């Protein structure tokens, strides 16, 4: 297993994804007219007053909080620390770059997911990359491969990753045995995911804004106490990214170490291009009633995750002076806790333990919601198969709480790489559709109209789009 994981990571991360993610992100940035920069205000506008939910889907705000529940987790605390330990401060710069171009990628994949959504047997929306691979490209084989990778990675392996971070944090802060933590978190996760996607959305809507706000507030306090040192840290990040300045603590990895670790940890954190968030984007009732609006909601999620929360973690770690690049030095969650302890004393590890408990727990339930959509695509959306998946998720939580952090991250990297590769190919093939939807949306905005998707104006989509959904909803919106 170790040999297979190492091979996949070497090939996909070393030769495919590091460049593929940046290339695809740049491509969508170009064909959408730099949507994440020129239309950044619209990213906030589409979420500011969106609260609509129906029996068929959740609200755009709930979709954002569920995707943030998945994004904001281990990658924002342990992942940032790992990136700095292995790639130096320059890795943070490349995390920023991945996020900036990744906003366009996230916009594209979630727009497509909303466009190609379907109704399941209960009349509720489901969709995601597997659906636009089958209905947009016409390749069910791609959809099957993606769905299996999604269930393995997000449904199972990533749950173990998040549980690992919780157990390490609780052990460091409160000396709680890892098995006890794993059993407790597994039981809580089981209670929430038994209620399905709607239950997950209700929990995420309440917990995510509160936990993110508290964490950012602490970061603001720490930065304020060390404000004179912040410019120097920012300069160090940029210089280290290009090898102009050696990092402190004995780091000698060079530009490629910074680039590779920044891209890997950046993708793990914000998930842009991975094909995860589109699964929940498809469940939302769009407002404005256009697929592009949900693309912008998820593009905003990438910004919040990396440019705000990951940067907060990086500054707190680098301002602490706790970074040590020697092989046996603390990394992951332990490094983040040590850094906070240096800033706020004994309260630091306790706060990090509490933060990761909420961050990682919501990631577990958010990740499960993605896996449920993949099960629907595979025709396994019945009660029996879904119950089996839920039990496996709980088992992986317990297992992950007992594993070494390096082992868990390596397996997660491999599964994520396979999944992201398949998705990047799919969205590149469908890029013309994304470009047309973007032009249509902003043309209506310029005309002073509320954007509405009219499926009749897209004859090239053929039977791939469920016209019963869009024709009926567009008519109802016009009447209402």
TrEMBL record:
<keyword id="KW-0812">Transmembrane</keyword>
<keyword id="KW-1133">Transmembrane helix</keyword>
<feature type="transmembrane region" description="Helical">
    <location>
        <begin position="207"/>
        <end position="227"/>
    </location>
</feature>
<dbReference type="InterPro" id="IPR001463">
    <property type="entry name" value="Na/Ala_symport"/>
</dbReference>
<feature type="transmembrane region" description="Helical">
    <location>
        <begin position="415"/>
        <end position="435"/>
    </location>
</feature>
<keyword id="KW-0769">Symport</keyword>
<dbReference type="GO" id="GO:0005283">
    <property type="term" value="F:amino acid:sodium symporter activity"/>
</dbReference>
<feature type="transmembrane region" description="Helical">
    <location>
        <begin position="233"/>
        <end position="260"/>
    </location>
</feature>
<comment type="similarity">
    <text>Belongs to the alanine or glycine:cation symporter (AGCS) (TC 2.A.25) family.</text>
</comment>
<keyword id="KW-0472">Membrane</keyword>
<feature type="transmembrane region" description="Helical">
    <location>
        <begin position="12"/>
        <end position="35"/>
    </location>
</feature>
<keyword id="KW-0997">Cell inner membrane</keyword>
<feature type="transmembrane region" description="Helical">
    <location>
        <begin position="141"/>
        <end position="163"/>
    </location>
</feature>
<feature type="transmembrane region" description="Helical">
    <location>
        <begin position="175"/>
        <end position="195"/>
    </location>
</feature>
<dbReference type="Pfam" id="PF01235">
    <property type="entry name" value="Na_Ala_symp"/>
</dbReference>
<dbReference type="GO" id="GO:0005886">
    <property type="term" value="C:plasma membrane"/>
</dbReference>
<feature type="transmembrane region" description="Helical">
    <location>
        <begin position="300"/>
        <end position="323"/>
    </location>
</feature>
<feature type="transmembrane region" description="Helical">
    <location>
        <begin position="387"/>
        <end position="409"/>
    </location>
</feature>
<keyword id="KW-1003">Cell membrane</keyword>
<protein>
    <submittedName>
        <fullName>Alanine:cation symporter family protein</fullName>
    </submittedName>
</protein>
<keyword id="KW-0813">Transport</keyword>
<feature type="transmembrane region" description="Helical">
    <location>
        <begin position="343"/>
        <end position="366"/>
    </location>
</feature>
């Amino acid at each position: 297993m170790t040999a297979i994981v190492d091979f996949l990571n070497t090939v996909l991360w070393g030769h495919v994804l590091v460049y593929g993610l940046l290339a695809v992100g740049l491509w969508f940035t170009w064909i959408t007219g730099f949507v994440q920069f020129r239309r950044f205000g619209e990213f906030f506008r589409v979420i500011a007053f969106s609260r609509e939910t129906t029996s068929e889907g959740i609200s755009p705000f709930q979709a954002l909080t569920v995707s943030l529940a998945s994004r904001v987790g281990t990658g924002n605390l342990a992942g940032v620390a790992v990136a700095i330990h292995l790639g130096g401060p320059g890795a943070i710069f490349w995390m920023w770059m991945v996020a900036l171009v990744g906003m366009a990628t996230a916009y594209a994949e979630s727009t497509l997911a909303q466009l190609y959504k379907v109704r399941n047997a209960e009349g509720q929306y489901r969709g995601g990359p597997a659906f636009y691979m089958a209905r947009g490209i016409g390749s069910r084989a791609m959809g099957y491969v993606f769905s299996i990778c999604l269930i393995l990675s997000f449904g199972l392996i990533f749950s173990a990753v998040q549980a690992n971070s919780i157990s390490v944090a609780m052990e460091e802060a409160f000396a709680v045995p890892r098995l006890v933590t794993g059993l407790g978190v597994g039981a809580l996760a089981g209670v929430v995911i038994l209620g399905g996607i709607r239950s997950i959305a209700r929990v995420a809507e309440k917990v995510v804004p509160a936990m993110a706000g508290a964490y950012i507030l602490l970061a603001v306090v720490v930065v304020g106490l060390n404000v004179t040192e912040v410019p120097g840290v920012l300069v160090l990040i940029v210089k280290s990214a290009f090898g102009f300045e050696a990092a402190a603590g004995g780091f000698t990895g060079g530009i490629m170490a910074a680039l590779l670790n920044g891209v890997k940890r950046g993708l793990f954190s914000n998930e842009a291009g991975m094909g995860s968030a589109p699964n929940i984007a498809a469940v939302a009732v769009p407002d404005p009633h256009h697929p592009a609006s949900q693309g912008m909601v998820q593009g905003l999620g990438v910004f919040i995750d990396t440019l705000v929360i990951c940067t907060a973690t990086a500054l707190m770690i680098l301002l602490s002076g706790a970074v040590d690049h020697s092989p046996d030095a603390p990394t992951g969650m332990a490094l983040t806790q040590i850094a906070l302890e240096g800033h706020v004393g004994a309260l630091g590890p306790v706060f990090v333990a509490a933060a990761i408990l909420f961050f990682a727990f919501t990631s577990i339930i958010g990740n499960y919601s993605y896996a449920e959509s993949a099960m629907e695509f595979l025709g396994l959306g019945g009660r029996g198969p879904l119950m089996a998946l839920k039990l496996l998720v709980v088992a992986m939580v317990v297992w992950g709480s007992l594993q070494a952090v390096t082992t868990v991250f390596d397996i997660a990297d491999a599964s994520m790489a396979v999944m992201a590769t398949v998705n990047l190919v799919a969205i590149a093939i469908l890029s013309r559709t994304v470009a047309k939807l973007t032009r249509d949306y902003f043309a209506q905005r310029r005309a002073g109209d509320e954007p509405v998707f009219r499926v009749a104006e897209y004859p090239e989509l053929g039977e791939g789009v469920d016209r019963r959904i869009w024709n009926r909803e567009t008519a109802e919106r016009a009447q209402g």
